Automatic annotation (TrEMBL):
Gene3D superfamilies in UniProt: Collagenase (Catalytic Domain)
Subcellular locations according to the entry: Secreted
Gene Ontology biological process terms in this record: molting cycle, collagen and cuticulin-based cuticle; proteolysis
PANTHER family: DISCOIDIN, CUB, EGF, LAMININ , AND ZINC METALLOPROTEASE DOMAIN CONTAINING (PTHR10127), ZINC METALLOPROTEINASE NAS-27 (PTHR10127:SF862)
GO function terms (MF aspect): metalloendopeptidase activity; zinc ion binding
Protein name, as recorded: Zinc metalloproteinase
The keyword Glycoprotein is annotated on this UniProt entry: yes
Key words, A-Z: Disulfide bond, EGF-like domain, Glycoprotein, Hydrolase, Metal-binding, Metalloprotease, Protease, Secreted, Signal, Zinc
Disulphide-bridged cysteine pairs: 55-210
Length: 376
């Protein structure tokens, strides 16, 4: 049974007309004003994500000279970058925002990120149907200019944690506000709030020039992973890749050795039916993820026919989904979570001899059923 679950989407975000960074020591001070300790725990997890994957550090309950004040305001919002005129810079984690991925998004703003669909190059990637947006809300879709937006040469990523979902601010929720101009299979990739994407993490590291820290490291990362500035002898890997140096398939996030496999394709169709998650209707702080590598002989291509996707349907595959990476492994692939979203479930072909499938969930469970083979 499929069920649609709406989620709360940042309607109160403010933006300032300049972007600034935090101190040259790259340390943000934060102060929690939560009596609700479960939310405080989630905030600490979100802070830890950025801290563990960049050179930025946070100090809880530091001195009162310009600090980030997490508080339970109205909605989820943040200022963009360091607003130096404040002593106390508020970041609101209101009702419905108490989720690690949403908090990671808000911290992304506080660190200097705009929304992805505000990128200066967004008109090459999404079409925005302004007739389906309340005129008072239109400024949420403002586009930045070359002087206000630097993407450090990184490609547009539909799966960025800073991207809105396809029907954010829609007057008619059954019609998309944003349509991908490059593939309709990216429609549900937009709106990720599970955790920041590889591109998000790389861009944050570029914004804060974190990579200088590991410039002389001899520890090498494969598959376009990069040295983790919080520990140069570790790598930050594109999704699906893991091991010490991103050279292998990443193991299941829950430590399971049976979830996720390397599978050799043949010229005959083979079936694959997998589920990840549990039977509890509650959002978890930890993402359960497993990855499958479908491998063809070099020079051949993987063909995938999707037979089923479920069980939780959500806008932006907010609670979980299946991701298919068929070419560029550094960018988020096609994310799908619900059979009912498709008139016909897709058949897709990889650009080279490897296809990566990632199945992830933060709520109940998620399943895919596919057939795969290799073709010329
Ligand atoms: Zn936002």
């Amino acid at each position: 049974m499929a069920c649609k679950i709406p989620y709360f989407l940042n309607p109160y975000e403010k933006s300032v007309n300049f972007t600034n960074f935090w101190g040259s020591n790259k340390q943000l001070l934060s102060k929690k004003s939560f009596s609700d300790s479960t939310t405080a725990q989630k905030i600490r997890k979100a802070i830890k994500f950025w801290q563990d994957n960049t050179c930025i550090t946070f100090k809880e309950n530091g001195p009162d000279n310009h600090f980030l004040n997490f508080y339970k305001g109205s909605g989820c919002w943040s200022y963009i970058g360091n607003v130096s005129s404040f002593t106390q810079q508020d970041i609101s984690i209101g009702a419905g925002c108490e989720q690690v991925g949403i908090i990671e998004h808000e911290i992304g703003h506080a660190l200097g990120f705009f929304h992805t669909q505000s990128r200066v190059d967004r008109d090459s990637f999404v079409k925005i149907d302004t007739s389906n947006i309340d005129s008072e809300m239109l400024d949420n879709f403002d586009k930045e200019s070359p002087s206000t937006n630097d993407n450090f040469g990184l490609e547009y990523d539909y799966g960025s944690v800073m991207h809105y979902s396809e029907n954010a601010f829609a007057l008619d929720e059954n019609k998309p506000v944003m349509t991908s101009l490059t593939s309709k299979l990216y429609q549900k990739t937009m709106g990720n709030r599970v955790e920041p994407s590889f591109t998000d993490v790389l861009m944050m590291n570029k914004l804060y020039q974190c990579q200088d820290k590991c410039a002389s490291s001899t520890f090498k990362c494969n598959n376009q992973g990069f040295n983790n500035p919080s520990n140069c002898n570790k790598c930050v890997c594109p999704g699906g890749f893991g091991g010490e140096n991103c050279g292998y398939r990443k193991l299941a996030s829950n430590g399971s050795t049976t979830c996720g496999e390397n599978l050799q394709a043949s010229t005959e169709w083979k079936s694959l039916d997998r589920t990840v998650g549990n039977d509890r209707y509650e959002v978890t702080d930890e993402v359960s993820t497993c990855h499958w590598f479908l491998i063809a002989p070099v020079g051949k291509h993987i063909e995938i026919k999707v037979d089923y996707l479920g069980r939780i349907c959500s806008s932006g595959c907010f609670y979980g989904g299946t991701e298919f990476k068929l070419g560029n492994f550094t960018k988020t692939g096609y994310r799908m979570c619900c059979k009912a979203d498709y008139e016909n479930l897709p058949t897709m072909t990889s650009q080279n001899h490897l296809a990566i499938i990632s199945l992830y969930t933060i709520y109940y469970n998620q399943q895919f059923q596919i057939k795969y083979r290799y073709i010329d």
